[in-house]
Design goal:
By secondary structure, the protein is of the alpha/beta class. It has two domains: 3-115, Enolase-like, N-terminal domain (Enolase-like, domain 1, 2-Layer Sandwich); 120-344, TIM Barrel (Alpha-Beta Barrel). Helix content is 41%, strand content 21%. The chain has 15 helices and 13 strands. The protein has helices at 52-55, 59-74, 82-90, 96-114, 118-122, 140-154, 169-182, 198-207, 225-234, 248-256, 267-270, 273-284, 298-308, 312-315, 357-363, and strands at 3-21, 24-38, 43-48, 128-135, 158-162, 187-191, 216-217, 239-241, 262-265, 289-291, 319-320, 338-339, 342-344. Strands 4, 5, 6, 7, 8, 9, 10, 11, 12 and 13 form a ten-stranded mixed sheet that branches. The protein has a three-stranded antiparallel sheet with strand order 1-2-3. α2 (59-74) crosses α4 and α8 (198-207) runs parallel beside α9 (225-234). The longest helix is centred in the N-terminal third of the chain and has 19 residues, at 96-114. It is globular, with a radius of gyration of 20 Å. Bound molecules: [(2S)-5-oxo-2,5-dihydrofuran-2-yl]acetic acid and magnesium ion.
């Protein structure tokens, strides 16, 4: 059974509630749907979110690299030869989310061909994940109202606060209002998307010490090695690598050089094959991980759930799975549901990323 075709379909769905953060903003899901077909006619699906400010990819670059660079090399490769596929993808540097989606679509084909849920093939640890919701930049009181609404409606009680603003007191105040309004039980952490310097981040940590924050993600630019290392060594809470650990090698480097002591794992940028290697490496080194959000649609989120639920190490912490709720619509044929603060793994063979064809016709931008 061989890979017979790979299609990259650009589409666009507006956001009802745009998300703003230190490295950019999202108003529109201008993503690319990847469809990978085997010579048996089995079709696998995955979503690709271009994040130009994080990985330098755009909707056009993703379509081009998948159709012009990856597809010609992958057609004819056996669908089970995942390491051969990795070798081909990794000949091309960067293009993280394009590679991730090809890998997930391949796993979808494998699962459907074997008649097995991919979550079972990967590890089969759990049937659901606890959800963390990501809060973008807003005035502190609005953030609290939103968080309370999410707790009431979905049972979510873990929140990632987007930070990295100047002056620093904007974010410190937001964290304080959330902690006071949500109480001691809520899990809160920050993601600065490299918005601060290491010294500014240290200042924020000092001034939020009494708020019981779980960890701080990507406080500053990790390439400023000594500042970052000093911050990690002196921080009372873990410092997580997200965009500074976009692949296996970077994740290893950041942990081993003291640039981070916690890792965000994102299937959108690592696929399942590389993400599993990152998780195994982290587990062996005693480093915790959590499933991050690449500002995913429901199609992307379903893949995150399938992967995150498969391993004990990824199922431990709340996973960032709910920001598709900010979108005006979605492509997933069977919508996800968040109840009691959890999302269940989609049932059936494959990844569970089947799309609604009418919606795809409506939103695709290549016709
Ligand atoms: C996050 O965790 O940083 C924003 C930019 C990006 O690459 O991902 C999102 C969320
Ligand atoms: Mg992040």
């Amino acid at each position: 059974m061989k890979i017979a075709a790979i299609e990259a379909i650009p589409y666009s769905i507006p956001y009802l509630h745009p998300l703003h953060f230190a490295s950019g903003s999202v108003h529109e899901a201008d993503h690319v749907l990847i469809r990978l077909r085997s010579d048996d006619g089995v079709v696998g699906t995955a979503d690709t979110p271009p994040r130009p400010y994080t990985y330098g990819e755009t909707q056009k670059s993703i379509v081009a690299v998948v159709e012009d660079i990856f597809a010609p090399q992958l057609i004819g490769v056996d669908i089970f030869d995942r390491e051969k596929v990795q070798e081909i993808l990794n000949r091309t540097v960067h293009n993280q989310t394009a590679k991730g989606a090809v890998d997930i679509a391949l796993w979808d084909v494998i699962g459907k061909t074997l008649g097995q849920p991919v979550t079972k093939l990967l590890g089969g640890y759990s049937d659901s994940l606890r959800v963390s919701h990501m809060l973008g930049f807003k005035p502190a009181q609005e953030l609290l109202e939103l968080a309370l609404e999410f707790r009431e409606t979905y049972g979510i009680n873990t929140f990632k606060l987007k930070t990295g603003r100047r002056p620093l007191h904007l974010d410190i105040e937001a964290a304080r209002v959330l902690r006071n309004g949500l109480g001691e039980d809520a899990e809160l952490y920050m993601d600065a998307n490299r918005g601060w310097s290491a010294n500014e981040a240290a200042d924020v940590l000092r001034r939020t010490a009494e708020l019981g924050l779980q960890f701080l993600e990507e406080p500053d630019d990790a390439r400023e090695v000594l500042g970052r290392r000093r911050l990690v060594a002196n921080s009372p809470i873990p410092i997580a690598a997200d965009e500074s650990a976009a692949n296996l090698g970077e994740a290893a480097r950041e942990i081993l050089t003291g640039g981070a002591n916690l890792l965000a794992v994102k299937t959108a940028r690592s696929g399942f094959t590389e993400a599993a290697k990152i998780v195994g490496m982290a587990e062996g080194m005693g480093i915790d991980v959590y499933i991050g959000n690449q500002i995913d649609t429901q199609v992307g989120t379903a893949a995150s759930v399938v992967f995150g639920a498969a391993f004990a190490h990824t199922a431990k912490r709340a996973a960032e799975l709910s920001n598709y709720l900010d979108m005006a619509d979605d492509l997933l044929a069977e919508p996800l549901a968040i109840t009691g603060g959890r999302i269940r793994v989609p049932e059936g063979p494959g990844v569970g990323t089947a799309v609604d064809e009418d919606k795809l016709s409506l939103y695709r931008s290549d016709r």
